Amino acid sequence: MIGRTCQDVFTQYFYSNELPCLYSHERCPLKQTIETGESTSIIRKVRDANGAEKWEDRVFSPILDKDGNVIYVMESVRDVTRFKNLEKMYSGMQELLHRVVHSSASAIVAANIKGKIILFNQAAENLFGYAANEADSINIRDVYPPGMAKEIMKMLRNEHIGGPGKLHLTQATIIRKNGEKIPVEMTAAIIYEDNQEVASMGIFNDLRERLAVEKKLQEAQAQLMQSEKLASLGRLAAGVAHEINNPLTSILLFGNIMLERLEKDNPQAKSLKYVLEDAQRCRDIIKGLLAYSRQSSPSKTVFAVNSLVEESFNLIRDQKMFMNVQVVRELCQEAIYINADKNQLSQVLINLIINAIDAMENEGELTCRTFVDPKTNKACIEISDTGCGILEANLGKVFDPFFTTKEPGKGTGLGLSMAYGIVNENRGRIFIKETGPKGTTFRLEMPQALPGDDQMPANGKIEEIQ
Ligand SMILES: Nc1ncnc2c1ncn2[C@@H]1O[C@H](COP(=O)(O)OP(=O)(O)OP(=O)(O)O)[C@@H](O)[C@H]1O
Ligand SMILES: [Mg+2]
Asked: pTM for this one?
């Protein structure tokens, strides 16, 4: 218009020569305004007289004649340095926030008022099993068990739980993409804009590892309590057993002498026989108590576990018991050796087998497995039945001496407590692996005798089973 480039004009007024027409000609806003008759603007960085960085907003507004032709262009310049700095700060904050959210070890999820997911960080991808781009297509309700999302919103809106719009640390369950249910600890909040709910957000932490450790700790505590209880009962039992053992020996000795001296048809002979039978039963109980309290010393040999199983089955005198019981043997093909008192362990197995048959009321399937546990490298014998199972309330009592649920005269309640004492004495472990209405499995775990161990013959041959 004035026959000079705008650069020529502007350099007179401004400190920089970085002017609009330094941009490619096509993008020159002044030219655009002249050509289009519409306002254009440009935001540029400039330096003031002191060299400080400034931002200016130049607006080119056309002034038109009555035919719509541009006759003047009015240019206004505004200092927008403050806005620009604020904008920079804001986008920096946003970037920081984005990084904080995405590098958080806790899963962070936000959803809009309709439940559509609008934020899903990396930890959420790991916990929920959805990739962030898939999360767009799921609803927040899908990651909770049915009804739970509603329940959480209800709690969030309840002023008495965590304050308005807030939910303090709560345990919940979430559902992963593959359907797996995962226990979590979560906090949640409603996001408001002008007092209107616009979104909700939750922060989740996987509880699986912590719960597993807590469970192990509880089990260890329960086991410790059980061992302490059994140890003190053992001491008591040993004291009583010793006291009763001596008079009982005399009763049996002199009773038998009397019986021998009595004529066979003497009417007192029958009564004396009953006395002696009961005295013998007391003696067996004492023997059991002594074994339980580890007062009888085991005589150890090295033998194969499968031979122990076979002998124990053969030793059960009342074979009628097995009439309606299907016995399944899943015995390890390879020989597993242990170093223990075979007779004592046989008593343990016999009791486990008889207990299993009793629990099935003589009808069902009894499975005996022998194997080496790959985790612990221990020799294991498991006896499973399809019986009634053990009530949860009785789980802590079955190894107690004299605990029985059997009718009077049928069980003394000494079998498992004896087994506990014997197995401990032989450096093993006996425990209920599982129990429920479909049956029970008891596991006996013993350290393996391996070639090269002190107890094994140097050539690895074991006389007993050759
Ligand atoms: N396999 C099993 N299934 C269900 N309950 C069982 C099983 N094994 C043991 N029990 C429960 O544990 C109790 C204690 O067992 P334990 O062997 O110590 O004594 P008992 O069998 O009752 O008597 P005893 O062995 O002295 O003849 C049993 O009375 C029964 O209630
Ligand atoms: Mg028993």
From this structure: 0.53
